[in-house]
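Q: I'm writing up a methods section and want to include an example of the input and output format. Could you take the sequence below and give the corresponding predicted structure tokens, formatted cleanly so I can copy it straight into the document?
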Amino acid sequence: MAGFLSTNTDHLTRSELWSNELIQPFEAMTFGNTYIDWITDFPDGDTLNIPSIGQMEAQDFVEGQAVRYTAIDTGNFEFSIDTYLQSATYVSFKFLQDSYYMDRVKAQFVPMQKTAIERLIEADIMALIPNGQTSADSNTINGAKHRMVGSGLNERMTIEDFFKAKYALRKAFVPLDNLVAIVDPSVEYEISTQPNLLNLSSANPMWEGVVATGLTTGLRFSRNIAGWDIYVSDYLKTNTASEAIDGVTAAAGVNNIFFAASAKPMIGAVRQAPMVMSERNKDLQREEYVTTCRYGLALKRPEAVACIVTDTDQVYA
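A: Here is the clean output for your methods example:
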């Protein structure tokens, strides 16, 4: 009498097994919208004009002579809602009928489309400062540079660069409250592994534990440098070509940004928050899902920001 052996039970053994788990991609965290001054008094149209005034002058008064009157300079900042985003996908009726994973796949459409739009918004926010400056130029204000290349070896970031960015804002009379720096992961690595910092970690209680736990908790540096609250982002603008500023060239440059959050240098307005629409297409025999969003972003106060370009290819150099 024959029994059950592996050689005669092929039809009773599943050759492929499919898990109940559905693996989803990791997403980099977004936080840039925290630092946007969102405009709410923009009820219609797509362009908003924001007037500005300059400073008053003062001179010595000479007795017996008429007082000298001077005009105040005025200007206009024009802000537009100019970005219209969409994220869309579909699922065929046949897939709905046949797929074991159908319910879980459909449940992910809306959150994944929202995440896709949030990624683009985050990238737009991180690009506001470099896009608001003149590339390949130091963007000098009151004698201080607001755009520069990292001063370290091979265009890397140094501790000194944080003080340079703070100096630029101070020379522009920007209130030095709530200073925020957002840097690339390559900068986090460079700062964390500087020999002088590693030495400090054993000799100075302020830096104790840097080697054991690192400089960052989540996206934020656990210590301030030169008064800057420092965050790490994967969405900073990367240059598509080499950039030379004051004779120093960054070949693979990323734009690390510095700003005084209390000065509200970046503004934005949302005309349409992410809105989801879905319908059944009888001609193409499928369900369609569309998320759209409409907004505008701009750099309003260039004097309250700075940008330091560093090379991203030095981690393994």
